[in-house]
Amino acid sequence: MPTTGTVIDGISSWFDTIGAFEVATNVTVTNVVLAIVFILLGWYVSQLVVSLVGRQVARRFRRPSITKTVLRGIRGVILFIAVATAAAQVGLGASNLLLSVTVFSATVGLVLAPIIGSVINGLFLLADQPYEIGDLIELVDSGSPNGGTRGYVEDITLRYTKIFTLQNTFLVIPNATMRERDVVNYSAEDTRSRLSLQMQVTYEGDLDEARAIMERAARDTPEVVASGPDIRIGSARYPSDPVAQIRDYADHGVLLELRYWVKDPYYMRRVHSRIMERIWDGIEDADVEIAYPHSHLVFDDTSGVARVAVESDANQTVPPRNQPSRPVEFDER
Fold first, then answer.
1. 3-state class of 291 per DSSP?
2. SS (H, E, C) 185-201
3. Could you give the percent of the chain with pLDDT greater than 90?
4. Neighbour order of strands in the sheet with 254-262
5. For a Cys staple, 122 with which of 28, 70, 145, 175, CB 3.0–4.6 Å?
6. Which residue from 25, 106, 119 is spatially nearest to 73, judged by alpha carbons?
7. How far apart (Å, rounded) are the C-alpha atoms in residues 319 and 37?
């Protein structure tokens, strides 16, 4: 059975053959054990240092993403020192390690190119601050019927961004891809978000009452900002209370648009549904009717003659059931 010294001698001769570096042949079992101890000690010390300076680093940078990156860097430096010390115990000097790393990097440079690109883009993400850990963001996708994927930023590293979606799934996206995507941040600095709701009512109804019903439905929803000072966005100011305005005179009715602010962006669809339910209950006994398409067929002197005949039930053609009927209106001209 081969001994430890025989195995080490074989490894040393193999490295001497390829010319990568030279390994001392007088390595003993004690040196190998010390190398392992140094690696374990380096791992323990890295954890201890991170736990000791973690709070100070967090106070200094005040951004979870940068704090985690700095702490990972500290842990990596300590582990590198431990590995270098362990390598010295088995006869690997600094020059040998540098030569081996250079040869290895040149060999797999093409494989590491995407990773290096993600790391560089990760540095740009940390500098630009488009989103932070804990933010609710949306990855815009024009081809999706729902508009895109929404989720919370779980972690930001130099290589990737981890997103916890609202569908209870994880997305791990390289930073190079994240920098090319259109990202909507709903919770950056101010968590209040402005939403809108449209409703088309008939021309014959009470327009003022319809607008009042829409505004009251929004104010009665707890998640909506009911009143308060104007909300400032850049140099513009917008009223904080819900406002219903005329959007357009459409073909089949008046298009109204309700604009309102939600306190938090986490339940926007639920809030939208609750407001629509309250509007539906409000127009039940009001002089307001939701518009729907109408068709008017007009016959005049230039339209010719319309012949109408009544036949018996045996010869009458019965339209299929469930076929929608459309009212026909005659206008005398």
1. coil
2. ECCCCCCCEEEEEEEEE
3. 17
4. 193-201, 254-262, 243-249
5. 175
6. 119
7. 89
* Interstrand relation of 254-262 and 160-165 (parallel, antiparallel or unpaired): unpaired
CA–CA separation, 195 vs 211, rounded Å? Answer: 16
Instruction: Please state at what angle helix 207-219 crosses helix 268-282, rounded to 10 degrees.
Output: 140
Beta carbons within 8 Å of 162's beta carbon, 6+ residues apart? 153, 154, 155, 156, 170, 171, 172
Among all chains, which residue has been given the structure tokens 């060999």? Answer: 107
CA distances from 255 to 207, 247, 250 (A): 10, 5, 6
* Span 154-199, pLDDT tens digits: 888 888 888 988 888 888 888 888 888 888 888 777 778 888 999 9
Q: Which amino acid is at 210?
A: A
Residue given tokens 């009452």 in the structure block:
209
Compute the half-sphere exposure of residue 320: CA atoms within 13 Å on the CB side of its CA: 3
Q: Do residues 187 and 267 make contact, with C-beta atoms less than 8 angstroms apart?
A: no
SS3 139: strand
Buried b (16+ CB within 10 A) or exposed e, 174-198: bbbebbeeebbbbbeeeeebebebe
Q: How many CB atoms lie within 10 A of CB 136?
A: 21
pLDDT in tens, 238-289: 888 999 999 999 888 999 999 999 988 878 888 999 999 999 999 988 899 9
- Angle among Cα 161, 165, 167 to the nearest 5 degrees reads 155
Judged by phi (left if over 0) then psi (alpha if -120 to 50, else beta), residue 319 lies in beta
Cα–Cα dist 219/242, whole Å: 7
The residue type at 276: M
Per-residue pLDDT at 107 = 52
130 and 181 Cβ atoms separated by less than 8 Å:
no
Instruction: From residue 20, give the alpha-carbon distance in Å to each of 32, 86, 89, 91.
Output: 21, 19, 18, 14
The Cα-based distances of 19 to 25, 89, 94, 263 in angstroms read: 15, 21, 16, 67
Say how many C-beta atoms besides its own lie within 10 A of residue 114's C-beta: 12
Amino acid 70 reads V
